[in-house]
């Protein structure tokens, strides 16, 4: 089965083609990071316009690289939400037009299902599994007892972890997106700054707004005293506290649900500190982490999720499919 997939929920325009929900034949990602950098974050209106400029070219490039005639494509999958509505609509409409013109069935896919299924690229998932979803918009612990069955055990009560990373980076003037820069500096520093307790007790829920505000206040206080912030130590302290809570709760969920596999998903899954801690501390189940190139937004993961969704639910979408900025994962 050949799937063509489209992702445009935020600031990456991406089209991919895969075979049998495993093999990636092409995965073209056009990033807008350079466009948004000067504003310190994604500007939704500009993002939509950039998607419109790039989408046709990205489609053509993905078809060219995969060397697949359009007639061989069995399914079109597209991110229907959640995300920036203007951005989503460009991908959804491009996918609908392609599916309609070539008479191919269409499925709308949840963006987070895509991140989760980035772990199924060239690998089999084993159930029950626990997935830690850590992205710019989401922080969730999910239990999967079978394919395409998502039970949310807990989630963030306020900021997503990627959002907190980006805010910390901005506070110390590190640019956008800050996550990878904080990660790099954290490796060079020592966790010398005290951080607040962010454990939220015995629940599987998270909260990152407190530690974010703590870092902002700390930096302001240091500046008021005319002292210098030791940036790499600050990054190390923040990263240590955040990765501790992510790994602790994951370990507890693995134990409580007798998981066979643990996977991570989303942009922050690229975090080296998090990967190291998982490697050291989660040793009694099979651990799968996505390849770096499939951690941040890309269409390949949407196609793999679309493949399993179609196999499990057997339901396709029609030409009334629409984007949704907010959408539950079910
Ligand atoms: O999943 P993603 O590409 O987009 C969303 O769906 O949100 O995640 C983007 C987020 C950004 O907040 C970015 O700073 C963060 O992932 N990120 C990282 C790292 N690489 C990307 N955060 C921490 N460490 C990293 N290495
Ligand atoms: Zn994402």
Descriptive overview:
- This protein is an alpha/beta fold and 330 residues long.
- It folds into two domains: 2-117 and 294-313, Nucleotidyltransferase, domain 5 (2-Layer Sandwich); 126-289, Nucleotidyltransferase, domain 5 (2-Layer Sandwich).
- The chain is 43% helix and 18% strand.
- It is built from ten helices and ten strands.
- The protein has helices at residues 33-37, 44-66, 85-102, 111-117, 161-171, 179-188, 209-224, 231-256, 272-281, 299-313; strands at residues 2-7, 12-19, 23-31, 75-81, 106-110, 129-134, 139-144, 151-155, 261-265, 286-288.
- Strands 3-2-1-4-5 form a five-stranded mixed sheet, with helices on both faces. The protein has a five-stranded mixed sheet with strand order 8-7-6-9-10, with helices on both faces.
- Helix 9 links the parallel strand 9 and strand 10 (286-288).
- Helix 6 (179-188) crosses helix 8 (231-256).
- It binds 5'-O-[(R)-(carboxyoxy)(hydroxy)phosphoryl]adenosine and zinc ion (ZN).
- Zinc ion is lined by residues 111, 115, 135, 266-267, 297.
Summed up, the domain count is: 2
> Regarding CATH, which class of the largest domain?
Alpha Beta
Q: Give the termini distance in whole angstroms.
A: 24 Å
Helix fraction, binned, reads: 40-55%
Characterize the overall form: globular
Structural class: alpha/beta
Give the ligands present: 5'-O-[(R)-(carboxyoxy)(hydroxy)phosphoryl]adenosine, zinc ion
Q: If classified by CATH, what would the architecture of the largest domain be?
A: 2-Layer Sandwich
Number-wise, the strands total: 10
What is the number of helices? 10
Mean pLDDT: 97
CATH topology of the largest domain: Nucleotidyltransferase, domain 5
CATH superfamily of the largest domain: ATPase, nucleotide binding domain
SSE topology string: EEEHHEHEHEEEHHHHEHEH
| Main β-sheet, spatial strand arrangement | 3-2-1-4-5
User: What does the main sheet amount to?
Assistant: 5 strands, mixed
Q: How big is the Rg?
A: 20 Å
Q: Which residues sit in consecutive blocks of at least 5 with pLDDT less than 50?
A: none
Strand fraction: 15-25%
Catalytic activity: L-threonylcarbamoyladenylate + adenosine(37) in tRNA = N(6)-L-threonylcarbamoyladenosine(37) in tRNA + AMP + H(+)
Organism: Candidatus Xianfuyuplasma coldseepsis
GO biological process, one term: tRNA threonylcarbamoyladenosine modification
GO cellular component, one term: cytoplasm
